[in-house]
Design goal:
The chain is mainly α. It is built from 37 helices and two strands. A two-stranded antiparallel sheet has the order 1-2.
Length: about 725
């Protein structure tokens, strides 16, 4: 059938179709015809075309449904964002309100910490902690970490969704199947979570992990060696379905090689020519939903290629894929399917209602919001020049290891920050908070039931993941060897143990405190508790629902956990939805249950980063302002910012919380509680800073510095975090963790 005949028939069948839409449909028909022909090669061409047309029509109908759904989701997100901006400080501070939506604020506002970044961290905690907990319970975690069964696990993952899955699994070792079952479970949770918030990721038989390509290895090998490795391992029939006009394989592979060897694949992974459902530039849902360009014949073919040109082993690929999915889920949930476009749309409407002075001020702040977004969605970590980024990151890594050997001694200043957070969120006084923090050091990292409980809160041991997960793709700029060296360095110098001990112990303490409040009505809770809960949209209706069912027992103590929400009866959640004037359905009930668990998880994980100060996207933005590694300005900013991540986070999280976290919207509005909070924090941080300095002097065989000298106390303020601290190497490849 000639192209003109196709166009004429389509025009007669659907007069409203434009030429562009007809061209798109013809491309879709070509793809579908290949699928149909593979199913029944004996069918006549006309029959194939008609059946392909039916399939294409169904897909186009589906695309229309997805597009309408996403339009509704984006309208809802934009409406919620505008409402939040109007409520925030009575609409007087749109920049801070937008910053709150993207990465959180320390100002007192309902939902002020339930940002896209915090939501992503909550999903990360849920999935990483879940994998660790379930594999440890099955006794297969060491095998997963070591990679001893990676080939067998890959085969087991490849089998899911295939008709012969049972036979394949039956021929594999039990441990490999158990590992694959846990991995597949959380990959499916990640897929459906992204779909719920606007993506459309279809289940893909033969999916193992998110594909990775080491641009340095590929570039060093050259095109001929890379092609020789990959060409015979690819499923060209499946690739042709997505690329009906593929033509010359060599030319097509050359184009793929150029993208991979240059790192272009890290800049924009969206497939060219993606049809209807996801429209607009920088569309996150489109990027998440894309189909893979490269399809391998089987698990062994993928495994062999990954060994030669991939980045990391199977476990690293699993963790990386879930990390990307968690980050994307947070962005989709808070900012919609096209975060940047939605933010621009909302900022445009905000600009319309500002007066002249407000317009002038806000016009210079809009780019700051977009730059902050680039730190949350990962674009700010994509190198402008990969070689320059790697060389400079390696230099900073060496600097970090040369200068932070005694970092764990400096970290005793975490104790007053932890006490300050306990005072803010529970009303506990400074002294008892510091006694509790020092007791955590003596008890060490939670083990057994307490470790399981911490993981259920979303606070997992990053060292467990760090041992198997060298941050790569856009994140891994130093190379796997240097990343491994840094992980070992911070493990051996004790900083990793110290941080994880305090962070997990704080989360458990918070969960135990919340469980002890379960018998109280919301109005009877302390002011501090109600205030901090409001930051995560946990109000009276949520409290009345959670407190009756979310308490669990471990090591003889009660804890309020996200997992406990599974025990809430559907009838109670239905009543909760009715009271909120929301639609009731089985799906709405399931979504409300998931949302409640996520709200609690974000509450615990985010407060833990305030108790044990952790630089976040906002700190990174403040220091590097959206510049990218491998560029002149980006590398200059990262060199200047090295060792300044921690003091910047202290200013934002600790001092900002003390000044603004009790309701002051302007510094001049701060009263005695705010001033007293800052003064106490600086006093104790300085005292512990002097203790850290004295300990270092003693270890070096020197007399501690004379505390009667003013310059000694200035140094103690610097050491303790009141004016800054030893810092963290967070802007290259490793945070303090």
């Amino acid at each position: 059938m000639a192209a003109d005949d196709c166009i004429r028939i389509m025009r007669n069948a659907a007069p409203d179709l434009s030429l562009d839409e007809i061209d798109e449909l013809i491309v879709e028909l070509r793809k579908q015809k290949r699928i149909v022909s593979a199913e029944a090669q004996t069918d006549a061409l006309q029959s194939d075309a008609m059946r392909a047309a039916d399939l294409a029509a169904n897909r186009l109908k589906l695309a229309a449904v997805i597009e309408k759904r996403n339009a509704a989701l984006n309208l809802a997100r934009q409406t919620e964002m505008e409402s939040f901006i109007r409520r925030f400080d009575n609409g007087r501070n749109p920049r801070e309100a937008l910053f709150s939506l993207v990465a959180g604020t320390e100002r007192l506002a309902i939902g002020g910490r339930a940002s896209a970044a915090a939501e992503g961290k909550g999903f990360t905690g849920a999935w990483m902690g879940g994998i660790a907990r379930e594999m440890e319970a099955a006794g297969v975690w060491p095998l997963f970490v070591s990679g001893a069964m990676d080939r067998e696990v890959s085969r087991a993952l490849w089998a899911f969704g295939r008709d012969d899955a049972a036979a394949i699994h039956g021929a594999l070792p039990r441990e490999a199947v158990e590992i694959a079952t846990v991995v597949h479970k959380y990959q499916e949770i990640a897929r459906t979570t992204q779909n719920r918030f606007g993506a459309w990721v279809r289940p893909l038989p033969g999916y193992i992990v998110r594909q990775t390509h080491d641009m340095f290895k590929i570039h060093a090998a050259g095109f001929d060696a890379w092609r020789q490795t990959i060409e015979s391992r690819l499923d060209w029939a499946r690739i042709a379905q997505d690329n009906p006009d593929i033509g010359d394989r060599t030319g097509w592979l050359r184009a793929v090689y150029n993208d991979l060897a240059s790192g272009v694949h890290m800049h924009d992974t969206a497939k060219r020519g993606e049809p209807a459902p996801f429209k607009g530039p920088a569309n996150l849902a489109k990027k998440v939903s894309q189909e893979r360009t490269l399809h391998f014949l089987g698990s062994d073919e993928w495994f062999d290629y990954n060994q030669s040109f991939g980045q990391g082993n199977l476990s690293e690929g699993v963790i990386m894929g879930l990390g990307f999915a968690a980050r994307n889920s947070g962005l989709l949930k808070v900012l919609g399917t096209n975060p940047e476009a939605n933010l621009k749309s909302v900022m445009g409407r905000v600009m319309e209602r500002l007066d002249v002075d407000g317009k002038q001020q806000f016009s210079g702040q809009q780019q700051q919001v977009l730059d902050l977004l680039s730190h949350v969605d990962g674009r700010a970590a994509i190198p402008g020049n990969n070689t320059a980024a790697r060389v400079n990151a390696t230099f900073r890594a060496l600097q970090s290891m040369a200068k932070l050997g005694g970092a764990v001694i400096s970290s005793i200043t975490d104790i007053p920050f932890k006490a300050a957070e306990l005072k803010y969120s529970t009303g506990q006084n400074y002294l008892s908070g510091m006694v509790e923090a020092m007791g955590d050091v003596l008890r060490g990292r939670p083990r057994g039931e307490r470790q399981d409980m911490a993981e259920s809160l979303g606070v997992y041991y990053e060292s467990m993941m760090g041992g198997i997960f060298a941050r790569f793709d856009a994140q891994d700029l130093t190379g796997k060897t240097m990343t491994w060296a840094m992980q070992k360095f911070f493990k051996w110098n004790g900083l990793q143990w110290w941080t994880e001990t305090h962070r997990s112990a704080f989360a458990l303490s918070q969960a135990h405190y919340m469980a002890r409040q379960a018998g109280r009505e919301f109005s009877d809770l302390g002011d501090e508790t109600r205030r901090v809960m409001s930051l995560y949209r946990l109000g009276e209706p949520e409290w009345d629902l959670i407190r009756q069912h979310a308490v669990k027992l471990a090591d003889g103590r009660e804890y309020m956990t996200p997992d406990g929400i599974a025990a809430i009866p559907d009838a109670d959640i239905e009543a909760y939805l009715v009271a909120a004037e929301k639609r009731v359905s089985p799906t709405a009930i399931a979504n409300a249950r998931e949302d409640l668990a996520q709200q609690m998880r974000v509450f615990y994980t985010d407060r833990a980063t305030h108790a044990v100060i952790e630089p976040d996207a906002r700190s990174q933005w403040w220091l590097t302002r959206g510049t990218r590694p491998g560029t002149a300005w980006g590398e200059m900013a990262r060199h200047v910012a090295q060792f300044k991540g921690f003091p910047t986070a202290v200013i934002h999280k600790a001092i900002g919380r003390e000044i603004y976290g009790r309701g002051a919207n302007r510094l001049r509005e701060a009263g005695m509680p705010e001033v007293a909070g800052v003064a106490q924090l600086m006093l104790w941080a300085t005292l512990f800073g002097y203790g850290a300095m004295a300990a270092k002097d003693i270890i070096k065989g020197r007399e501690p510095r004379d505390p009667t000298q003013p310059d000694v106390w200035a140094a103690a303020m610097l050491q303790g975090g009141a004016l800054g601290i030893y810092g963290d190497f967070m802007l290259g490849e490793a945070s303090r963790f």
